[in-house]
Amino acid sequence: MKQKAIFCWSGGKDSALALYKVLKENNYEVVALLTTLNAQFKRVSMHGVREELLDKQAQAIGLPLVKMYVSEGTNAEYEKNMETLLLQYKAEGVTTVIFGDIFLEDLRTYRENNLAKVAMDAAFPLWKKDTRQLINEFFDLGFKTITCCINDGYLAESHVGQLISKTFVNELPANVDPCGENGEFHTFCFDGPLFKQPVNFKIGEHVYRPIEIRTTNEVAVCEGNNVTRGFWFCELLPA
Hints:
33% of the residues are buried. The protein has 239 residues and is of the alpha/beta class. The strands form 3 sheets. Strands 1, 2, 3, 4, 5 and 6 form a 6-stranded mixed β-sheet that branches. Strands 8-7-12-9 form a 4-stranded antiparallel β-sheet, with helices on one face. Strands 10-11 form a two-stranded antiparallel ribbon. A hairpin with a 4-residue loop joins strand 2 (28-38) and strand 3 (43-44). The protein has helices at residues 13-25, 51-61, 75-90, 105-116, 131-140, 166-170, and strands at 3-8, 28-38, 43-44, 65-70, 94-98, 121-123, 144-151, 185-191, 201-210, 213-214, 219-220, 230-238. It folds into 2 domains: 3-123, Rossmann fold, CATH 3.40.50.620; 140-238, no CATH class.
């Protein structure tokens, strides 16, 4: 009998490729997609994608979507809400949570430690795969994705709202991972073998959100060229 699992779905390319592989291998019964959203803005955390487009993704994939809202943005809030939700699914026979992470050891440890609190397992179908090979596999399978957020410590505004292609990846700066695994960029996946039909959307304006970074003696928005000052988001609108 296959283990029941829920899939942590960000809506981006790594999530899409990981879910595709899980469904193809058919070792798990994926009962739902799970996405964390900002409660105030109704957008996917970090990616900034509207809830309406997330709904369209889930409909196109054909799996139920579970939304976990956070308002404070703290680890404590996230962990409390996640534990409550996971216990509900555990009571329904779900044993595993699947993630699209590739090589961030501290993030994997964090996820596994949180799941250990509720005696559940974590699965990482893309773990330790070569990121250049993964992105090329993503393209070869026919997936399509667009950058919805970029970290300006690595990339320029011109990189946001761009369709990702082999040319896009080949022209990335040398310090940027081909899959953006270090948080250099985030994406919205809208077509490919995972979807029954494409997710239609329109490209809107670019929005900049500065962040505060703590220095040795003060909190300031850093203005250097080699550090993160903030994030550029591309507004994606339901078509």
